[in-house]
Prior knowledge:
The chain is mainly alpha-helical. The chain has one domain (2-234). The chain is built from 9 helices and 2 strands, in the order ααααββααααα. The protein has a two-stranded antiparallel ribbon with strand order 1-2. Helix 1 (7-23) runs parallel beside helix 7 (155-182) and helix 2 (25-35) packs across helix 8.
Amino acid sequence: MDWLTNTEIWMALLTLTALEIVLGIDNIVFISILSSRLPAHKQAPARLLGLSLAMISRIGLLFSIVWVMSLTNPLFTILSHEFSGRDIILFLGGLFLVAKSTREIHDRIESTQASAAGRAPKTPSFTSVLIQIMILDIVFSLDSVITAVGMANELWIMVTAVVIAVVVMMLFSNWISTFIEENPAIKVLALAFLLMIGTVLIADGLGQHIQKGYVYSAMAFSILVEILNMKMGTRIPGTPVAVQTEPKEKSRLS
């Protein structure tokens, strides 16, 4: 029971939990956008199941620490850059995310045109959405697990941090999804955010490491500006308001 009074353990747990939540932002945004294309009654189960799969994949990777850390060993060299298993996974995951984000933007334009023409937009199957979530969960989990291994020495601390982080994301997933869905401009920004994350993963796989903090900061600033625009839009209508003037008295004919 010494761990109850060990401040180092609690600090490691709090820091790692906060980091897991931050690293899970892109995951929950991706899950929210994918689930929004499902029928309304299937969206919440898809989000919860997707986040549960994310938690299972991260815990599974944590219990395979030896294998995960071996992914950093060089496999082959191209143009003086040594590629490891981690690089390959990040590169392929980045390509998938870029392709998927671009496809989602294209489908969004198509669905808008279809709605204007009176046609029903295409709806993906529940299974296909879960498969896509599982693929990206593995990619998003990889960096998260490697970071956790570098910050904590105890496996139970890593697992606890992952579970707490996923539970927090589950609690806020409905709110985030509703906010994204009700604000089309935010949804476009979220897709652009995923596009940037995909580009960062590709660059990381090619040996050009870019701090995700820069991407998160840029995205947070863009969302803040858009929220301010939305607030201003509720106070200042887009169309000019006619100035109300009192009617002039007609001159009486003498």
